């Protein structure tokens, strides 16, 4: 509500004036995110058709019921959408995020997956972290993992946060930032 013109009380009711206000109706909570998800799905489908890929986009709720809705792409020969270690998928997700945020003039979290790739990658990174931790524990020598994006480094840190024998830290700058696993 915005007050456009303040009213006056007058004297004994004489000379009184009404206030003028502008009232705007807010959409219900979550409506903007629902609009954003629908728009993201529409834009993703358009991008896939422009890429001449035959694929279906479906909405899935994030595990544990928290977080953004996941747009899952299914179809044949979609490895091109994943790219090397998910780089193309990450770029596609960022592109859709920028398009939706620009159109709605607000941030709408968008997560795009291709046939469960993100879950498989998380499991592979967890196994890598545990294997490397065992090696560090046995040899006592620190180990540097390959450079990876922040979301993948986070998976490594979380996988080893309760490990009694090793600790993790991110080192490096920008694209070459990686996780180092050291003995405690």
Q: What is the domain tally?
A: 2
Q: Give the N-to-C terminal Cα separation.
A: 57 Å
Radius of gyration: 25 Å
Strand content: 15-25%
Choose one word for the global shape: elongated
Number of strands: 8
Uncertain regions spanning at least 5 consecutive residues: none
> Kindly state the mean pLDDT as a whole number?
86
In the CATH hierarchy, what is the architecture of the largest domain at level 2? 2-Layer Sandwich
Number of helices: 5
Helix content: 40-55%
CATH topology of the largest domain: GMP Synthetase, Chain A, domain 3
CATH class of the largest domain: Alpha Beta
Listing every helix as H and every strand as E from the N terminus to the C terminus, the arrangement reads EEHEEHHEHEHEE
Task: Describe what you observe in this structure.
- With 184 residues, the chain is an alpha+beta fold.
- The protein has two domains: 31-115, K homology (KH) domain (GMP Synthetase, Chain A, domain 3, 2-Layer Sandwich); 120-183, R3H-like domain (Ribosomal Protein S8, Chain: A, domain 1, 2-Layer Sandwich).
- The protein is 41% helix and 20% strand.
- It is built from five helices and eight strands.
- The chain has helices at residues 31-50, 79-82, 87-104, 117-139, 150-160, and strands at residues 2-5, 20-22, 55-60, 70-75, 111-114, 143-144, 166-171, 178-183.
- The strands form three sheets. A three-stranded mixed beta sheet has the order 3-4-5.
- β7 (166-171) and β8 (178-183) form a beta hairpin.
- α1 crosses α3 (87-104) and α4 (117-139) crosses α5.
- The longest helix has 23 residues, at 117-139.
- The protein starts with a strand and ends with a strand.
- The model has no long low-confidence stretch (mean pLDDT 86).
